[in-house]
Every structure is written in structure tokens, then in C-alpha cells.
């Protein structure tokens, strides 16, 4: 990863295309630099048609500058960008910030210009930010490399770092600063000809002034870079909250028409997010609710929720939102309970949720004491204070009380502003950095993500950095490995499979079956026939020599009928799987962004209908394997629900790890793998892939 | 249902407990009546300690009044309420509105007072509203029978009717009037000693000034009344939007501690809502988003969604929200497309979603023409206009354009205000009744419910009113019908079951099996053994006389071992179910609120683990049966997915209807019924309950 320090903290900046023509991009960018930044380095204005702008000297070219600036901000029209870039690269400028549009997003001509821009930068060792972007907004260090007329209003410094591709949605998040917590740095990387969102996530992971990283993505270009960045953030204890469009076909198509880049598989993206602790949200308001909560406080070791309100209906509603999200209501410590019982009236509810009832609202001291007691309870991870109404002075008093109570405790008090009426009480909470979510559901969804991140973090005891297996362009040709050979490879990799043997004649089939011991399964053996059952190529439960002999005849006839083209190697005779057990499946595909991805779940027809599957990028660790097993909806079935025998979960987890290691060891070769079904027995009985389809890259050189 | 006309439109009102003591309930209620209502009937003040208040004559008692008022509003302290109620009832006052607290919500003494209050009302034929409630807020006819200091500000008349139990959450919804659409009538029924939320839903269903009904519920007391009310609303074409707490144990417990009433089963409530077209939401903000959208426009026959925005990222985000909610993006008519192509720049996206790009935002006429063209497209049900940012004047102009475009078309334009910054543009949209949702996700969730209601309404072709089967207190004793007898009853009700016979000896078992034809199933026959498999009481696939004879020995031994207490009638010999097919289940229970409820879904272990079930209150109609089948997650499996044979869906739907009819015909007797498994064959093969457990009320008189 490039060190971006000089891009974020430059010592000198050249503005190429500086202008004093009102409302021009050159003028607006200049004004942001001169009037609205607090930059104490040198600023060079470059414009060959001027000698002076606003009383500052204007240089004819970057080449003519007395020193090499750390950054060249390029705002000249699209036709002139390449020449300027060439000049900058020649001068040895380390970073070019290209705000100009008309590149990859603007048809074929623009795409060609973008390719040339990249080539110029690569040749000169210059890094490019943009093009086609609103620029870089550094609030904490007050530097606007942007033409945005909003920059003068981006005044709230803060611990949130924002990395987005598009400018519009990024600006939407910037306006959430109105909720009272600021965004310290916003990178909006536009067409990402070079620097990507991931570069800025990586930078923010190390930046001491950033505590929470927020990102908006339409597509991830470089999976390895992205994974490295989010692992860096995780290692440094900084949560990454991500919103990525493309969960539906409509969204994928619209994003593609917008950025001309593919969004990638939503399932794979979400799996990678989950694997590395990235907190995925489903909308921008959820992103704001969640990130702003993290900016207030990091989750601690306790994850019980407290609820404190003065409305019985709201208490029930909020308790319900806790329950439906799988969160846990804390049990108050005895001293908290005793104090509430002493201070609150008889008809108040003093167990969690606390309902003080509205009649005590006028007693600010009482509220402060009782809320303070709840917030100091050691059993709590956070206290939710849903504010049902804007009742003017009463509500202002409540806001004051919350502010005072928070001063005496570290457990975050999370007020939720439920009313459409947003008066002075709301403004006071915002001013004091409470960033209130605006519905109980939304607030608790943010808390659920906050708690889940805390749990994830605690579960990650010293996991080492993961490197992607192998990202390759799609294979030009593939071939499937025979089942016999595939299972041999698995066995070699330490994965248990049932005894089997290839029989090249009817006699050999009978002999091998007898040697193996009945019952057996007979399957057609042919490199060209992958879906054996579909052509009548499988017979199971063969208990005698006669049945095996008959199976030979039937299967060969069926294969000849359905696939006269296929070369038949014979019959694969295999020991029949034990009785009982559960059918699962393990699949591996090569994702164009993240390399090999494993899909694991229920086998059989349920896989596609009920989609009870879970995914991980490879390689996985022991914690991932355990999490994958637990994430299945049908996990209770494996865990002994309804009086069923407990499945051999140890063997299953070991199998997942071995498959991962096998794929990693053969990463360049394996394109796809399908172990389906995988037989899983009761405790001690093991886990056995009953079928193995391995598709490998054909040896001819792959073309991109 | 009582006619509530005189409660909503009284000709005269007595205020019992009228006062001029500042901030007392009597004073606040009086002020709301005299200063903030526009009531042209007579108002009588009653207070034995005064002769005059605020210049108006004060009467010593209700008995002393010159005429009988339509309503007595009772605000005297709790100790005096019963005497006043008695007086009112004696005088023949039709409605008492009791605002006073200290009844059912306040411990045992209060509960007793509440019982007496109800007895007084019942004896005198007087209806009671309350007690323990903020009162009745009639905005459209400007009459406040309430002590709320907010009433003077409840000024926006409107088409929304609001019926709530609690006051706090109800007031929260009232404050959503700030979103620009008013609430015409708010009934907050408090302890519901007599009049319930359902009475007001029923009233609003007939009220000409109410178009949309909103309700907040903690528990439904009278299922029959509630179902009658929501059916009335459906018949009159008025959507009912409901939010009910109690979806989790936490919520149920908190609601119970708040209202001292059980919330009922969330699954059953939701099923009844779905059955009768009630739109259920999961939070109050969703309720507001949804109801306010209905208040703007009812869904029409087209349900395609249009998206119009000036941000590519927002276009993708919104299209994604459409897709993930199962909504459909409309295809524009050719003339719309042509006009967009002509007017918008080349780099704009002119197919749905429309992304004008930000550069054209300054051209208001262009925006108005193109937005107008989209909104007039005949293929659209609504147009979503997500507004990404508050950009001051630009956004105000956008708001103006939306307002102008809406004037020329009936298809609703739904602006979504996405930013936390809510400036003048937002206020203009509110002022013009657009009630903008505040995130794309929330907005589209409301649209999804709006579209779903339109579809539901179109599917309801002349369904006749449904009457609850039989609501009874829990049975003091039940007994299970033998499988033989249960299946006989089913057969009598026209439900196909496999041939079976009771064998009282081993010889009889063999003989009956032989007569029936092999293979057969043998099951223990005992009124005391319900879960036969669990004690080794079932053997399947018996193909010979010897196997049947052996089964007799095994099963009898197993039964004697596990249940030495049970009376054994013999073995039930039954024809074996055909090969293949799918296992389903049909269950019926008696809900204490709604009578018999049917649960239908996948059979076997998957029922509990995957919860792939759907429910309906009985009786069901053909449309319900069809909907239940379609609602199963595994419906594609039955419908021929993955090359499976299509199941006999006709037979399945017929079976659901016959079971419904059977339960209705035996409603007082049947407590519970479990047909599990139900065998469902391929098309033409039928649907057969393989087991039948019927639990009936024991004949002794049930005690409550």
C-alpha cells in the first residue's frame, strides 16, 4: 500500500487550472483552498493565461514551479488533463488529484483517455486520485482539495473517516454531521483509475484522529487490497461500517450503468464483510445510526441492554425491539434495583425496562438519580432512552438530565428521538454529541450491529492476516477431474472418503465389490459426465454380486443412450455410505475479486429452495469453520434438537478446514469444487464427501 | 356494535369535575372545551363546590341538569368516579368519558373499582370510554374531550383516523402531523373497560371524513369485535395500518406489566391481520410512512415503480431497494422514453431508474417536463423521487418542481428526503402534503405495503363476512380421540384417508392386513398414547403376514414397557402410503381471542426448525387456501422446481378447505387437531392425512 501521508498532510499544493472566473471549478477550488482551508504549506497557482489571481503569483506550468509540490490538484478541462498529468509525472509530483470529469464515465473516448491517464501515472510513479470526483475533504486538518460549495460548511471535526466511490451519496453522509458528530476526512475516489476506497480505509486504519471508518461501495475492484485494508482496520480496533449497493438485479444493473463496473456477487461481498468483522448495513440511514453510535463509544465486554423511559407503551415497544433483534435485556444489579424501588413510585416498573411513568417527569433530580443509577449498573452495555414525544419544556429537561447523567458514567446512554417534531430537546442532544437515532427500530438495529461487532472482536483471538488464494481472470477452458481421481486427491489431502475402485469390466466390478464388501454403489466413470444421476448413471444399495452385474448392464446402456459421445472409463464401485446421517454440501468457486470462496450448507433440494447456506473467502480458520456451522438455519438439527442424535460437528469443522487447505494448496489449478452430498454422521461417525466434482483450469494459458 | 355517532358528534356535553384551578385536569379539560374547541352544542359544567366557573353556571350534579347530555366527561378524582358514574347511568347519559386514572392499572383496589365501574355502566346501558386515558381528540370537528395541553396545537384536519390503547405512543403518532397530513380523529381508549379500539375502527370504517385507519395495539380483548371492525374497513375500501407490540417475549412481558393484559400470540395476530388485509408494520416510524402514503393516494391497478433522481449512486441504491423488497421497476411507455431521450443529455440514464445527472438540476423546466412525463406514464403505480441532499436553493427548486408536476398527474410522486439536513425544501414538501419518508429503505418499505394492499384488495372478489368459530375459555379437561375414530370422522367429512381397521388380536391384525393388501403400517391403538412413534408404537412397510405378526409382538412389548399405565385397544392396521410425495402438516388450535386457527406447512422435523408454516383464522375461503399454499417458503418444491413432479395442489387446497369446514362444524367440541404428516402426491395423486390427532373438550362443563 502506498503511504498516503503526503496526500492527506501535504507540505505544498499546486492548483492547476486556478481561476478567478466566478463559479468556475477553478475558482471554487481556489476559494476552498485560500478562504476555507487552514493550510500552512505553500500553494502554487498554475494557469498559463494568467500572471496573477487574487493577488497571488500564477505560474505558467507545473514544470516552471520553484519546488515540486506534494500534490497537484488538476481542474483543467478534460482535453487538457493528459498533458498536465504528463507534466506533473515528469516533475516527480507524488500525487495528482484529478477533479475533472469526462473519463471512464463518458463513453468510449473517455475510457481511452482514462487508460492513457493511468499509463502516464504508472510510468512516472505518480499516484492519481480521481478523476471525476468532488475531491478530498479534510475536515480535521481543514484542507479542501475540492470544488464543492459545501466545503465551507463542513466544519465539525470528528472521529469518523468516510471513504466513498460516488460523490452524491458521500455528500449525503457528510450532511449527517448535522446529527452532532463530525467526519474528519472524506475521500470520494470517483473513477478510481488508481487510488481506491481501500487505500483510504487502509490509511484511516492507521490515522490517529480516525476511530470509525465508514464506506460506501458500488463495486470492489481489487479484492486483495480491500481485504488487506479491512484487516488492518480490524487489527487496529477500528470498526468499518459498509454499505454496498447491488443486492438485487435492479441495483446491480443501475450501479453498472452508473459506474460502468460490475458490483460483484452480493453474497460473496457480504460473506467477506462478515468474515473480517466489517459491519454491513442495508441503507444509508442505518449506516449513519450505526457509525455515529460507534463514534460515541466502542462496545465493552457486557452486552446487556437497559431501557429507561417514562411511557409504558414505549417500554413495551422498545423491549420488543430488543427481543426481535436477538439482543438481551440486562438484569439489574441488586443495588440498582433497590435504589429504583426506593426512589420511584409504586406503580412505576423498576425492572428492566424501567418505566418511571410520566407523572415523575417533572422531577428532574429524581430522573437524573434513577437514570444515573441504571447507566452505572455494571451489567449493562448501553442504556436506551427512547423519547416518545416532544413535549417542549418537559423534554428539554429530559435532554438536560441525559446530558448530566452521561457525564458521570462511561456506559453510553442512547437517547432515541421518536417524534416527527424535532424541537429544542433534540437540538440539545445533538449539540452534546448524542446523535440520537430517530426510531426505536433503527436505533436498536444500530445497537444490534454494535453488540455483534463487540462479540466478533472478542472472538478474534490472534487471528493472523489472511491472503487471498488466487485471483485470476476467468479460465478460457476447464476440465473436470474424474471422481476416482478427485477422491484420490482428497484422500491424499487427509480428507476421509469411502473406499472405491474403478472397474473396467463387468467381472472386475463384481470382484471389486465383493472384495470391498457389500452393500456398494456403482457410478458411471467418465470425465465428460458430471451429473451422473441425471442420465441414470448411479445405482445405490447393491447387496449382491448379481445386483452389481445387473447394474453394469443397466448403467452402460443408459450412458450409451444418453451420452453416446462420452468416453466411458468403466464403473466406479464404492462402499455404500452408512445408514442415517444428514446430507450437507460444500462447494468452492473462484470469485473474480476475492479468489476462492467456499459455500457450505444443507444438501439436496433444500440448498436451492431454502438457501440455507453460508460462505467464506478461503483460507478459513478454525473460528470461521465453527461460525459457518453455527450460521446454518438448520444448525439445531445437527446440535441435537428434537431428540435427534448430535451430529459429528468436530469432524465437520475439520472437514471444512481440510477442504480450505486443499484448495489453497491447489489454488492456481482449482476453478470449482462440489462435494455434494457430504454425509455427516452422529458424534464419532465422521463426515464423508460422497461425491466430489473438481473442475480445474485447463493447461493452456488463460486469456484475460 | 354500538353507534358512536353521539360520542363523536355530541349535541351536549357535561364536564363533571370542571375546575378553574390552574393546571388541574378539570381546568385543562374545560379550557380545551371552551377555548380550543368549536363546539356549537351545549356545555354543562358540574361541580358541587362551585356555582360558577369562568362566568358559566355550575351545576351541583348530573341529576340536576336541565337536560340529559349526550356525553358526561368525568375528571373527578378516582374516589368519586363510581358515584358520578352511577348518577350518569341513572340519568340515562349514553356515553361517559372517564379520564381519571387509578383503575385497572393501579393494583388490586383499582381493579375492583374498574369491575364496579363496568357493572354500573352495564346496568344502566351506558357506554364507557376509558378510564385512565387522555381522552378523545376530534380534530376534524374541533372538539377536545381531553386534558392534554397539546390539543390546542392539534390543528391539522385530515383523512387519518387513529385508534390507540396507550396515550404516549398515540401522541407520538399525533406529532407526525408535522409531516404535513393531519389526523382527523384520535381515540385513545385507555383501560378499555367497555369501548375498545375495535369500536373506533368500526366507527372510522363508516366515517366519511376518514380514509385511512391507523391503530396501535398492546392486546386484543375481543377477537370477534376486532375482526368485524377490520372487515368493515375492508368492505368500505379503507386500509387499516396496525402496529402491535408483543412479537418477542420481552415485548409481551413489558406490555403485560404495562396494561395488565396478555398480548396474545404474535403469530396468530399477524395471521389474522394478513387474512383480512390489515397492513402490519414493525415500528411507529413505519406506521407513519405507510399511513401517510395511503393518505396521499390509494394504490391503483398498476404496481410498477418509477425512479427519478439526479444522482447515479442514489439511482442504484433506490433500484436496489425496489429489488430487495420484491417490487417491480416499471418499463416506460415508448413515448416517455422518447421524450426523455430527446430532452435529457446523452450521459443521463433514461431507462428506469432515470438519472438526470446533477448538471441538469439548474434547469427547472427540463426537470419539470421530464418528471412530468415519467409521472404521467400509464405503466406506473408511483414515482419515487429520492432527494439525496439538501443543497439549499437547488433543492428548493426541486421541491417546487415536484409540487408543480404533481398538480398535473394523479400517480403519486413520492419524494424521499434522504439527508439529515432538513431545510426549506423539506418544509415546502411537507406544506404541500407530500409527507416525505426519510430514508430510501423506509420509503420503499411503505411502498411495498401499499402495493401489497392493492394486490390483496384486487384478490378479494366478493368475499363474504367471516364469523369466528368459537371463542371459549381454556378447557378444564380434554381428551384425545382415537386415531381410528378421528379418521372415521375425517372420512365422514369428505376427507380422504387410507383404509384402516382396528385389530384386537395378533390373528385379527394379520387377517385385516391381508384383506387390505400389503404393504401396511401397524400403529398402537390407545386413547392415552398420542406420540406413538416415540414409544416404538409404529412399524411401517410390513409386506407379509409374518411381518405383521412380528410387529404385533414388538409393539405390544414396547408399549407395555414404556406405558404400562395405558389401556391398549389393539393395533391399527393401515394401508401403507404410496411411494414418493412430500410430507406436510395441518394443525388447528383454539386461540383464546380469535377461536380456531389453522397452521399449515412443511411436515417432519423441518416444521420446528425452519418454521416454514403459515396460519389463518377459521373458517378460510378458497382464496385463503390458495394464499396459504403459496406463502410456504418451500412452495417452489411443490410447484415443480428443480425438475420435481408438480404436487397435487388442487387436492391440497381442497383438503385445507375441508379441514376448515370440519372444524367449523365441530367448533364447540374440537380443542386441537394435528394432521401430521399429511402425504401430498404428484398431480392427480391426492393429499392424505396419514396421522390424525383430535383433542376434544371433555363433556363436563368448562370453567372459566
UniProtKB/TrEMBL annotation, chains A, B:
A Pfam family the protein falls into: CoA_binding_2
Signal peptide stretch: none
The entry's keywords: ATP-binding, Ligase, Nucleotide-binding
Occurrences of domain ATP-grasp (ranges): 487-527
UniProt-listed PROSITE patterns: ATP_GRASP
Cross-referenced InterPro entries: Acyl-CoA_Synth/Transferase, ATP-grasp, ATP_grasp_subdomain_1, CoA-bd, NAD(P)-bd_dom_sf, Succ_CoA_lig_flav_dom, Succinyl-CoA_synth-like
Protein name: CoA-binding protein
UniProt organism field: Hydrogenophaga electricum
Amino acid at each position: 500500500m502506498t503511504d498516503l501521508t503526503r496526500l492527506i498532510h501535504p507540505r505544498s499544493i499546486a492548483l492547476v487550472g486556478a481561476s478567478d472566473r466566478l463559479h468556475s471549478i477553478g475558482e471554487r477550488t481556489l476559494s476552498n483552498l485560500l478562504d476555507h482551508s487552514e493550510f500552512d504549506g505553500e500553494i502554487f497557482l498554475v494557469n498559463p493565461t494568467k500572471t496573477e489571481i487574487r493577488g497571488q503569483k500564477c505560474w505558467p506550468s507545473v514544470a516552471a514551479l520553484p519546488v515540486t509540490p506534494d500534490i497537484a490538484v488538476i481542474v483543467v478541462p478534460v482535453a487538457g488533463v493528459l498533458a498536465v498529468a504528463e507534466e506533473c509525472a515528469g516533475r516527480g509530483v507524488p500525487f495528482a488529484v484529478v477533479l475533472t470529469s469526462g473519463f471512464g464515465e463518458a463513453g468510449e473516448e473517455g475510457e481511452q483517455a482514462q487508460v492513457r491517464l493511468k499509463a502516464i501515472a504508472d510510468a512516472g510513479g505518480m499516484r492519481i486520485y480521481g478523476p471525476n470526483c468532488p475531491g478530498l475533504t479534510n475536515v480535521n486538518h481543514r484542507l479542501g482539495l475540492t470544488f464543492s460549495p459545501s466545503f465551507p460548511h463542513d466544519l465539525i471535526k470528528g472521529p469518523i473517516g468516510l471513504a466513498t466511490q460516488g460523490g452524491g451519496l458521500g455528500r449525503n453522509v457528510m450532511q449527517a454531521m448535522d446529527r452532532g458528530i463530525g467526519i474528519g476526512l472524506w475521500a470520494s475516489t470517483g473513477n478510481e483509475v488508481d487510488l481506491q476506497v481501500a487505500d483510504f480505509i487502509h490509511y484511516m486504519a492507521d490515522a490517529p484522529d480516525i476511530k470509525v471508518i465508514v464506506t460506501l461501495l458500488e463495486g470492489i475492484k481489487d479484492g486483495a487490497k480491500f481485504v488487506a485494508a479491512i484487516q488492518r482496520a480490524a487489527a487496529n480496533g477500528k470498526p468499518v461500517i459498509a454499505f454496498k449497493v447491488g443486492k438485487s438485479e435492479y441495483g446491480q444493473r443501475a450501479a453498472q450503468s452508473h459506474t460502468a463496473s460490475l458490483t460483484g456477487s452480493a453474497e460473496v461481498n457480504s460473506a467477506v464483510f462478515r468474515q473480517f468483522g466489517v459491519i454491513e448495513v442495508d441503507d444509508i440511514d442505518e449506516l449513519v445510526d450505526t457509525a455515529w453510535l460507534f463514534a460515541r463509544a466502542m462496545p465493552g465486554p457486557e452486552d446487556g441492554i437497559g431501557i429507561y423511559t417514562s411511557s409504558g407503551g414505549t417500554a413495551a415497544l422498545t423491549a420488543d425491539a430488543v427481543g426481535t433483534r436477538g439482543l438481551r435485556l440486562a438484569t439489574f444489579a441488586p443495588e440498582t434495583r433497590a435504589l429504583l424501588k426506593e426512589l420511584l413510585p409504586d406503580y412505576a416498573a423498576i425492572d428492566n425496562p424501567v418505566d418511571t411513568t410520566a407523572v415523575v417527569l417533572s422531577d428532574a433530580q429524581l430522573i437524573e438519580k434513577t437514570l444515573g443509577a441504571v447507566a452505572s449498573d455494571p451489567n449493562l452495555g448501553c442504556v436506551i432512552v427512547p423519547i416518545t414525544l416532544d413535549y417542549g419544556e418537559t423534554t428539554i429537561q429530559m435532554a438536560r438530565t441525559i446530558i448530566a447523567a452521561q457525564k458521570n458514567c462511561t456506559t453510553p446512554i442512547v437517547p432515541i428521538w421518536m417524534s416527527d417534531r424535532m424541537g429544542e430537546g433534540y437540538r440539545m442532544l445533538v449539540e452534546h454529541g448524542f446523535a440520537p437515532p430517530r426510531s426505536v427500530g433503527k436505533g436498536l438495529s444500530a445497537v444490534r450491529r454494535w453488540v455483534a461487532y463487540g462479540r466478533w472482536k472478542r472472538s478474534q483471538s490472534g487471528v493472523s492476516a489472511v491472503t487471498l488464494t488466487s485471483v485470476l481472470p476467468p479460465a478460457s477452458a476447464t476440465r473436470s477431474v474424474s471422481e476416482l481421481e478427485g477422491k484420490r486427491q482428497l484422500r491424499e489431502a487427509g480428507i476421509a472418503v469411502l473406499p472405491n475402485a474403478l472397474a473396467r469390466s463387468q467381472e472386475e466390478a463384481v470382484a471389486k465389490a465383493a472384495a470391498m464388501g457389500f452393500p456398494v454403489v456403482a457410478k458411471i466413470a467418465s470425465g465428460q459426465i458430471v451429473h451422473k444421476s441425471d442420465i441414470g448413471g448411479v445405482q445405490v444399495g447393491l447387496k449382491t454380486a448379481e445386483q452389481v452385474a445387473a447394474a453394469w448392464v443397466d448403467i452402460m446402456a443408459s450412458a450409451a443412450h444418453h451420452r453416446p459421445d462420452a468416453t466411458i472409463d468403466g464403473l466406479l464401485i464404492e462402499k455404500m455410505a452408512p445408514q442415517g446421517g444428514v446430507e450437507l454440501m460444500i462447494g468452492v468457486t473462484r470469485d473474480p475479486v476475492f479468489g476462492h470462496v467456499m459455500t457450505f450448507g444443507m444438501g439436496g433440494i433444500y440448498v436451492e429452495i431454502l438457501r440455507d447456506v453460508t460462505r467464506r473467502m478461503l483460507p478459513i480458520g478454525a473460528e470461521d469453520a465453527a461460525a459457518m456451522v453455527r450460521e446454518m438455519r438448520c444448525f439445531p438439527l445437527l446440535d441435537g434438537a428434537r431428540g435427534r442424535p448430535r451430529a459429528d460437528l468436530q469432524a465437520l469443522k475439520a472437514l471444512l478446514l481440510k477442504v480450505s487447505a486443499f484448495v489453497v494448496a491447489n489454488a492456481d489449478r482449482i476453478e470449482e469444487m462440489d462435494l455434494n452430498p457430504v454425509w455427516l454422521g452422529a458424534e464419532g461417525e465422521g463426515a464423508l464427501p460422497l461425491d466430489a466434482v473438481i473442475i480445474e483450469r485447463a493447461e493452456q494459458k488463460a486469456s484475460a
